[in-house]
């Protein structure tokens, strides 16, 4: 049974990466454009994700970061004392 993005959204709080610089670069995320196949990536900033599993440290110079339709946390994250669980949807504005 496939779980839809909206169903996941109803189970987890939303964390907005775009309104805060407190979310660390290279946070592990899962990205998808269709909800069927999730790819492991590292968050960069401003809604951008480092491509192909690289981190900001290992990404070759000149490679562009990417935007995805759906992004969710791959592991628990604590921001300003608030705990966001694995699977929390990342809001990118």
What features would you describe in this structure?
The chain has 93 residues and is mainly beta. It has one domain (5-91). Helix content is 8%, strand content 30%. The protein contains one helix and eight strands. It has one helix spanning 5-11; strands spanning 14-16, 28-32, 39-43, 49-50, 70-73, 77-79, 82-84, 89-91. The strands form three sheets. It has a four-stranded antiparallel beta sheet with strand order 4-3-2-5, with no helix packed on it. Strands 1-8 form a two-stranded parallel ribbon. The N and C termini lie far apart (30 Å).
Give a quick account of the main beta sheet: strands, pairing sense, barrel closure.
Answer: 4 strands, antiparallel
Number of domains: 1
Q: Shape from CA axes?
A: globular
Rg value: 13 Å
Instruction: Going across the biggest sheet, name each strand in turn.
Output: 4-3-2-5
């Amino acid at each position: 049974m496939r779980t839809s993005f909206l169903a996941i959204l109803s189970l987890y709080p939303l964390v907005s990466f775009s309104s805060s610089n407190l979310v660390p670069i290279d946070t592990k995320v899962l990205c998808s454009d269709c909800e069927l196949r999730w790819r492991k990536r590292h968050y960069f900033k401003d809604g951008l994700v480092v491509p192909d599993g690289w981190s900001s440290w290992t990404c070759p110079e000149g490679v562009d970061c990417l935007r995805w339709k759906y992004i969710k946390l791959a592991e628990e994250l604590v921001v300003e004392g608030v705990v966001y669980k694995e699977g929390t949807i990342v809001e990118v504005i």
